[in-house]
Amino acid sequence: MTDLTEHESFLRAIFDGPDDDTPRLVYADFLEEHGDPDLAAFIRLGCERARLREGTADGPGWPDRNADLVQLLDRHAPEWPWCGKPTDRGFPIPGRIALRATDLAEPDALRATVVQESPEWYGATALGIAPGEFLLTEHIEPLFALPFTQQVHEWDLSGHVEELAAGPETAEAGTFALIDMNVEPVISIAAVKALASQRGARRIQVLNLTHNNLDNDAARALAESQYFIRLERLDLLEGNRLRGRTWQQLLAKFGEDVVG
């Protein structure tokens, strides 16, 4: 791969202007010049197909261009990240970023992987942490610094909850007398404190921290932070150990319509 920051600059421009083909076509030229003509062709075809479909370009029908795109995908499956993903104007459609906490230990390697395998993350506005992973204090600063998280404003850091059958099956098929809840937290109390101290928290509008077994210290850090200036929703009560006065601090800071 050529200079990583060049790719990231192109991707930022592309997803900041989702209806503008110019950054996409410039990136296609860049890819062709650096030895990736098929990917460049795929991006150009995707843009042309969109314009034909919208009636803003003349030429063969857009189904013909769609067939050309499928042919390119088949030729490069499975090494292209585009394979198996819905695309628009030559790029996968943004969804939610699904991170593994352990990847944050090597942020440069993660950046390279995202550029190659998940470029659509540069257009995503929500993120979550994969089950079985756990955010620690040292993960928080790299998480905020990653180029593809700069536009993210919805942070789902809720623990993962799974229902497990814990008793004999009843007469009603498929039901059990007892159900256990298996909860896997994804963030530590210390990491919540680190999150609350990051200037990047200014970007957060929605924050879900439920089911992490957090205590009043974590909640107090959120209430005392100077950075949650855009927060519209804070989910914290369920699955945590919060008591009295600290909860009132949160309500006073953010309002009852925000905190839940």
Q: Biggest sheet, open or closed, and with what strands and sense?
A: 5 strands, parallel
| Domains, number | 2
CATH architecture of the largest domain: Alpha-Beta Horseshoe
Question: What fraction, in percent, of the residue positions are helical?
Answer: 40-55%
Per DSSP, what share of the residues sits in E-state strands of 2 or more residues? 5-15%
Taking Cα atoms only, what radius of gyration do you get, to the nearest Å?
Answer: 23 Å
Residue stretches low in confidence (pLDDT < 50, at least 5 long) are none
CATH class term of the largest domain? Alpha Beta
Q: Which H/E pattern describes the elements?
A: HHHHEEEHEHEEEHEHEH
The count of helical stretches stands at 9
| Beta-strand segment tally | 9
The average pLDDT score comes to 87
| Shape call | elongated
- CATH fold name of the largest domain: Leucine-rich repeat, LRR (right-handed beta-alpha superhelix)
Structure class: alpha/beta
